[in-house]
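Margin note from the TA: students keep mixing up input and output lines. Inputs are the sequences; the output is the structure of the whole complex. Example:
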Amino acid sequence: MNQYALLHTPDSRYCFAVGKNEIVIRLRAAKEDENMRVFLVYGPKYQFQVEQLEVEMTAHYEDNLYKYYEKRLQLDDVRLAYIFRIEEDGEKYYYSEDGLTKEYSFPEAFYNFFQMPYINENDRIETVDWMRGAIFYQIFVDRFRVGNTDKDISYVNMRWGEKPTPKSFAGGDIRGIIEKLDYLEDLGVNAIYLTPIFLSKSNHKYDIEDYKKIDPMFGTLDDFKELVENAHARNMKIVLDAVFNHCSMKMDKFQDVLQKGRLSKYYDWFLIHGDKPDPEKMNYECFAACNYMPKLNTANEEVQEFLLDIALYWIREADIDGWRLDVSDEVSHDFWRRFRREVKAQKEDCVIIGENWHDAYSYLMGDQYDSIMNYAFTKACLDYFARGNFHAKEMAEKLNAILMRNTAPVNHMMLNLLDSHDTHRFYTEVGKDKKKLLCALALEIVYPGATCLYYGTEICMEGGYDPDSRRCFNWNHEEWDMDFFHEVQELLKLKKKDILRYGIVRVSANEDVLCIERRLDRTRFILKINLSEQECDGVEPEGYKVIEEVMS
Amino acid sequence: MNQYALLHTPDSRYCFAVGKNEIVIRLRAAKEDENMRVFLVYGPKYQFQVEQLEVEMTAHYEDNLYKYYEKRLQLDDVRLAYIFRIEEDGEKYYYSEDGLTKEYSFPEAFYNFFQMPYINENDRIETVDWMRGAIFYQIFVDRFRVGNTDKDISYVNMRWGEKPTPKSFAGGDIRGIIEKLDYLEDLGVNAIYLTPIFLSKSNHKYDIEDYKKIDPMFGTLDDFKELVENAHARNMKIVLDAVFNHCSMKMDKFQDVLQKGRLSKYYDWFLIHGDKPDPEKMNYECFAACNYMPKLNTANEEVQEFLLDIALYWIREADIDGWRLDVSDEVSHDFWRRFRREVKAQKEDCVIIGENWHDAYSYLMGDQYDSIMNYAFTKACLDYFARGNFHAKEMAEKLNAILMRNTAPVNHMMLNLLDSHDTHRFYTEVGKDKKKLLCALALEIVYPGATCLYYGTEICMEGGYDPDSRRCFNWNHEEWDMDFFHEVQELLKLKKKDILRYGIVRVSANEDVLCIERRLDRTRFILKINLSEQECDGVEPEGYKVIEEVMS
């Protein structure tokens, strides 16, 4: 047995509650250990020394090195003690906090069993239910649709459809989105994520001057309220972008510090090295190397309150359904914990989605975010669909590895995406291969979590890196590929199925075919993707197939 | 290379800040891979794609399977991106979020580097400085010393020195402790941990009726204040026991629920299955299976406030220096987070020590406790000194494994102990072998963290499991082994050395000799323990030796 591969950590992604008295326990082992059998030996914490139950575990997930045994347990006493018993080639081992041993002393178990000490209601990770079936549409507001033709358009400096530069303004606005809610509903969208809409000089508005004011380029508070109301009337959710890592240097607080230096009462709102911030010298902390985006000091109680007030204001005032957190990994855990407490107290099913490009486990254990933008999924899709780095087997392994990064309740809330305003467009990445894009969309819909479409994906919009991925939406229907459009519509409809929202998931590969299976009660839903040039397992070349079957 | 053994997790015990712009990075690998060289490839997050620095890492810790490479880095930009480069037998590999690969694409690094996204001040784990050099003395109050001879002693039902039963009362009190502060100071103690002292019917007082009242058996509020003042005058800290998992069924709130059931405003303070708690049926959550200790519902806001008020009251009123948290692993993380915030706001260096017998990593990342009672250390000492389960090498491996469970700032706050009111006495466990007990104490002092002596260890008190480990202190000096006592005194003095408080630690074994080394600047402090029956490496049989040397 490869004992180096064994891994279990209590109170973690390897042991977590999924209900009032239900838990999931995972054990990692080496994939190569084929003759291994794993048994969970368990019992109520205060009786474990004298009496244990036993149940065999099954390996449900495999990545490139490891397999993951998993068991879902219903408990009478929610204080659980457990260890693992492993059998291989006639040998018997125990795996406890003391590692792998040939013997295990149950009378001294109190020192080294694993445990779920108690399932406390306020520690349980709850899935925001609507995220399971959400089809998000991400809108970069300046480029989606001009709705208000009466406004002052003196800031618009490009013709709709021209190639954008970093400083282009095309005139898109909130009224444009309101106008197109029918369109989005018809497409199959039930949630909209808007990049920032608050007062800001830039087209992207990630440098915010006033967090409580809708930017006049985009509209008014009334426009925004109307958008939310109309969306809600369609059972559609609205998620906004919380740019809380940094602000614009034009925000009044930073301006005050620019003028007064240490004498400003906002000096400690920022992280300044010296008596006065100097944009030339950049002697203060910023986002990346952008001197016009000073970093906010979220260790400062006043800053915390300032930001929390904004977060709650938009829920209270406009009834938004979630916050996507910009550069959230650079903001303090301490702040996000407080943010969650207050946001969830205001609106329980308000979703919190971090922009963490990396393993965000330390933010996803129930005390901070619900979810992240799943860029690990994006990268896997690039490797599989665009780069040819992965065959079906490697893709299956990677998709399993991503699932094993987090607890099950979190996996059902992940915001899966193929591209965004911060990447190349996926359609461009796959060399404008529509069949590959459809296969990727099918995967995104069948894989657990929410699906996020970047605006224009449904009409095969192209684009390289920023600003090219932020082109104007092409409203000339005559230039659309309607076959493609209708196929996207059909795919999105699948997400309505309970099995894709609640079913367990199994990912595997059969030669050239990637296979995503969901199971719920007696129903199986299977997606098969074949990227090869031959038909394989009944799936056409560069094609996909969905099968739904009821088992007896 | 055994790639199954490789492990690194960002924002965890494998990567953590130890200062404003200083971090520690660890990588786990297989011990057997002797020809392996590991390099940290790193750079500021937003430049990593184009430019990287590189530094070799060293393996400082070895357990039974793994070795742990570690590097402490000073940063200019506190947003760090990094991966590992590994060389073995002429082959070159990279280890990133995508695992071990032969190639690594720096242009696409943003998807899969590891990172320390930003060192936020309010996320940093700070070491409570006095814990590094603390010598705790744990007192079970009823059995240490009778000080007040004027009190009503009608509750006392045993003669001092008799063998205690679970229901014995011997009459020990706070005044007795005040009387013996000179004694404790002379012994070398600089912190006292008292088992509970609040109103309660039992001798142990873990079933509390009134958390703001000192039990009259033990004294008055004035007595307790006098104890703290006199201790502080000696630079001695006082830590109390926070029994917040459960209370006594006699507490007024539970009594109210017993009478009124669901109609009581305290019904939701407890976890009751049914309309009314029934002690006969035990239809409510309790500590263990003790119906007289109902569990408190810390998901209830009012309960949180009730308990926090108690925690702050004793800091404010009596200026205590810390809380030891009873059955803390069964209480919600959510509550401990709030507890930490409020306790630290009141008194920054007030220490928070959990009673977690198991790997408590999920409580020790800076948002909940500072420390735990280090029962894993206790178990290792039992295996090595008492049971003969470990040779020196296995003990070194286990001590390294325990160090690698947590971050460095936490290791310096661990409450290391050989025994407590919840175990057999260590002296009894080692078969009354004083030389072994002295070796174990030497280890406890030289190993990083605070040292905790259970009352009477210095006079070789014996005792099996509760109630036998709670015997009365023997104040008849004529029966003491003064040679032993003086040697304990000498050992405790060592903890005053800066090197034992701030030095880095290396644990190894040389044949039969266990070797604990601390290093600070140019000084090395070495403890060698030889449990064999022959002299070995200059250490006498069943003996220890300390060496302090200055390196050129």
